[in-house]
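pls read this stuff:
=====
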Amino acid sequence: MVAVEGADREAFLQGQLTQDVRGLAPGDSRLAAGLTPKGKVLFFGPLLAAGERLLLVLPRDSVPGVQAHLTKYAVFQKATVRDASADYALVELYGAGAPAALPEGAWRLPAWGELAGQLLVPAAAREQIEAALAAAGSEPVGDEEAEALRIEAGRPRLGADATDANLPDEVGLEEAISRTKGCYVGQEVVARRKTYGKPTRRLVGLRFEPAVLPPGTELSSPDRPDRVLARVTSAAVSPRLGPIGLAVASVDATDGARLASGAQQAVVAPLPFAPP
């Protein structure tokens, strides 16, 4: 969690993030992203209004870089940026069930991709919320199954499927972009592409045949092995769908196209994956 606090927190993030930050009531949350001046993805995740602070919920390993980036721009603002990860525990939910009551100081984030929601609770209340979930019949989800569910839903992971080499419309982050707000870092590029441009790449699903191909594998048309059309960014074995993955692919790699890496093949699938 990166916490932005101070009197200017809203105005400061309004100029930094792709999402409209104004008017968030306590407990409100919106998906938001931070871009480079060239419109490339630096970070993205839910932005939550949590009392006297705005919280960005991010992958743990991205927090130091995001904190440093925002701190650099907050120098002349009445806003401070800090790592608040130790203050909270994050519980990700799958399925419809959730405890009816939350501990004091807890927040509920909305559904996103494969997630039915997320619970952000004070670190001291972690055992309490886990006990409440267990009493409601919840069961833990292992890392491998969670990764398979994420890939099935087509939710991009920062640092894997979406990096600073990507524009937001290439990696399925349209929900994070407000088309009505004013200026923010990278806004001119986003607006120009919306008006005049077309993505040349997109995030797609892959069904591997016969086995999983690891991230980083380049895929080409079987009849043009010299022309790379996609690069695997995530991969897992789904209990429901078998070997699947995500890739950033050329728009020429249409749904249903068959791609190859040596003797291995992959079929391009729309996102989210259709059930078996």
Notes: The helical segments are 9-14, 63-73, 126-135, 143-153, 187-195. The domain at 2-152 is CATH 3.30.1360.120 (Gyrase A; domain 2). The mean pLDDT is 94. The longest strand covers residues 224-238.
